[in-house]
Every structure is written in structure tokens, then in C-alpha cells.
Design a protein that fits this description.
alpha+beta; 16 helices; single chain; eight-stranded mixed beta sheet; globular; 534 residues; six-stranded antiparallel beta sheet
Amino acid sequence: MASGENYDVVVVGSGGGGLVGAYVAASRGLRTLVIEKTDRVGGTTAYSGAGLWFPGSAPLLRAGVEEGSEDARTYLRSVVADDTREQLQDAYLDAGRRLIDELEQNSWFQSFVYGPVPDYFAGVPGSSPAGRTIFPPDIAAADLGERAELVRDSIPTERWGAERPAVFTGGRALIGRALTAFLETGNGELQVNTRLESLLLEDDRVVGVTATSGGERTTFRAERGVLLAAGGFERNGELRKKYHAVPLDGTWSNGCPGNTGDALQAGIAVGAATDLLDEAWFVPGLVQPDGLPVFHTGTRGGIWVNGAGERFVNETRPYDQAGHELVRLHSATGVSHIPCHWVFDQRQLDRDSIGGDPSRPPDPAWLESGALKKADTLEELAELIGVPYEALKKTVEEYNGYSATGVDERFHRGETPWDQMYQHIVGFPAGPVMNYPAPASPDFAHPLLPPLDTAPFYAATIVLSDIGTKGGLKTDENARVLRPDGGAIAGLYAAGNTAAAMSGRVYPGAGNPIGSSLAFAYRAVLDLAGDTTV
């Protein structure tokens, strides 16, 4: 086994938390190494919109959205409802706004911008219909130079060969900016295709890592500490079978393919405690013509029905809540909800298309592959998807009654600020135009409740997907990894989905997962650097 160089800090993983944490360390003069298992940086962050739920941060103040974070604290206390996580909540709120202040001093980060995405729990004390989410500004790939080639592609490019855009948006913009800022400090080094094997433990302190690259094992020592920010274990079928109640093997995950829990298992091997291992950032996944799902949200028409042909959820509710409802009902009712069926009609297809630009007809591959099923009548459709026709007919009739009045009496679709965000969508897949309340449609009583009555009829498949697991190593407010007795493992820190989520079993608002990754990576570096800023 070769002995590598010595560093002040070793960061495992190159997602948002890993790279931003590495930048914060390197900008303080600490010699910092980032090791990345795959050949590209960015992890699951690169697939995302890179929303950051950072109440009280400068971009929100500039937008006049809110003056501070006290309402957000009240909101977190209400929705998480777990007093053992209150210190983590307070640490998160404080770190988020301070981190943005620091990042915006670097020209590569420029100015983050506010995006109005409502908090996911409406009517809860402290909830904001305007939201508390900020986003990184776009950046041209050319501005990043050769480093642009290191950034992980989006899912459409990675899976289907879509053209790589000339402008990086969302997660790719955040990753490109963070990578460049990190390397330009002069104190940063990146090694891709380098997999964590184990942590080095001496006298009860983590002093480095053992990693494999090109078939060779190498030791990298870390004088100040090791930050594990390598994602969750969503792509590890064995671990998912061990910890999750619903049988998943990772195939349906929208997490980065490299996220197999290496950092989690390395932490456990040195005595770390764990929490929430049965949890994930569950989301509905719309099965595509290639047979695999893509994270789906914002259903605007049609209904979801289970194996009994019955509607069971507000199809437009926040994705994490919809995903958890799939888990709950599939486990508790004895009726199949995984998969379920998205049933809609020609009116809906003409209005929104499916899996693409609504101004264009759907790709023929949808029907050719069987990902989209088509029938002239509901009875024929019921047979195609294997549900009882009389139950499906009754379900559609009930829904059409709600469509006529504009009120979904059973599941209340269209009533929350989150739902209303999807009432108008322009330029999909760029996303929704976020105005609320949006005006009613002139064609029917509520724009999110169009009637389901125009043949032919269609069905697509919804499965249980995720954007990562959310259980991991147990940490304190400074991201120090804890033992089962509550003591910290010296020199070891964790952030992002390698750590158990600050928000427990809920998803408070858009940008909470990536926001948590950045905030706790920041706190980890400040702690190991002896910086008392936070």
C-alpha cells in the first residue's frame, strides 16, 4: 500500500457539501484534498436545481421576502417535532445565512438569487407561502474552461445522450462554481476515480483515509480532520434491503450511481452511531421509455390510481410527502401502490405532453416502449393496466365531479401555495412560472382539476424513487460524528446524505437536502479549523 501526501483536510465526495466545504477549508489556508469515487464531480447535486433552503440569508433580504429566520425556526420546530434535533436546527439556520455571506465575497459565486418556492407544509406556524429558497446563478460552460468537463452531466445527457447545454444551470452551476473557486485558492487538490476504502484511526482519532485508485491502495493523512460528504447508500441494494421496509434495490433511485454507502460503512467501522437508516428523500418516479424512472412532481391533470383502480392521494402534493404516502399505503393496505398508474386523457396530453416540451407531441418511444399505454375507452385502459374497470370508472366519475365544482373534496388538490405554483407552466422542462395565486383557467373550474373525459385515454407508470437516502452517521451541531455514547469521534465529520438528516423524517422546503449539506460542511470546516465565526 502506497503512502500518499499529507494534508490538513481530506474531503470524501464532491457534491455540493463536499466542494463547498473544501473551498471553505482551502480559503482559510488549509491544504485540502477532495477524493471522488467516479470520474466526474458533483454527485447528486449536479442533477438538481441546487435550491438552498436558507432562511434569513442575504438573497432573501435583497428580495424583500423576509427580515430574519425566527419564523423559520418556529416552522422547523413545528414540522420536525423532535426536540432532539433542535440544536441541529439552530446550527443549520445560523450557518446557512453566514455561509452565503462568505461565499458571495468570492467572484465565482457572484450573487445567489431568490426563487419563490413555497414551504412544503402549508398552514403550519411559521410556514412561508413565498418560500425561503435561493439558487446559484447560471454560468456559461466556457467561463469554467477545461474544468467544465469535470462536472457531472444532467440526467437527460447522462441517460439519453441529450446535448450538453452551453450554460450550466442549477446544480451544475453550483458545482462548476465551487470546483473552480476551490482549485483557485491554490490550496486545493482533486483526485477523481478514487474510492474510499477505510478511515485511519490512531489513538481514537481519525487521522486520514485509505483509498483505491487505478487498482492501487493509497493512504492520505489529514492533520485537522476528514469530512465525509459522499452521499447516501441509495445505490446499494444490499443495504436498502437491510434497512428499508419497502423492497428497493437502488435501480429506481435518482441518486448518483456512485452513492453506495462507502462513507457510511467506513464511519460505522470506526464506531460511529447511526440514525434514520430506514429513511430516504422519497419521491414519485415517472417511468420513462428506457424503463427507468425520473423524479416526478407537479402533476396538473389526470389522477393516480392504485392496483385496485382507486385514487389515493393529492397528486400535486410536495414530492417527498407523495413518496412517503406511496410507502405507507403500499405497506399498510395490502393493495399495490408501487407501482401505481397515472391515468389521463387526450386533453391533458394536448395541454402538457408528457416527459418533454408541451409544445411538441410526445416522443413515439413512449408508446412504442409501453411506458405510455393508450386506449379508446376507460374499460380498455383498465384491462391494459390490470385494474378493475368498475372501480376505475367510479374513481373517474368521482374525480370529474370535483372537476365540475373546482373543489377536490377528498384530497384537496390545488388548495395550497405549493399546488398553485403549478397552475401555469411555461417552457417546460425549464420549470413552473411561480405566481400565486394564479388565475383560474377559462376552460374549467380549476386549472389543476381538468375533467378526465376526452378519449383516447392514457396511463403512465409511477414508481417509488428517491433523490437519496437520508439516514446516516449521527452528528452534532458542528457535524462531528458521534459514537453511540454521544461522544464525538475526534477528527471525523459528516455532512449531506452521509449524515442523518437534520430534518428527521420530514422535508420542510425546497433546498433542505443540499442546504443541509452545505451548512453542515461549513460548520465542520469551521470546527476543524478552530474558526469561531459561527
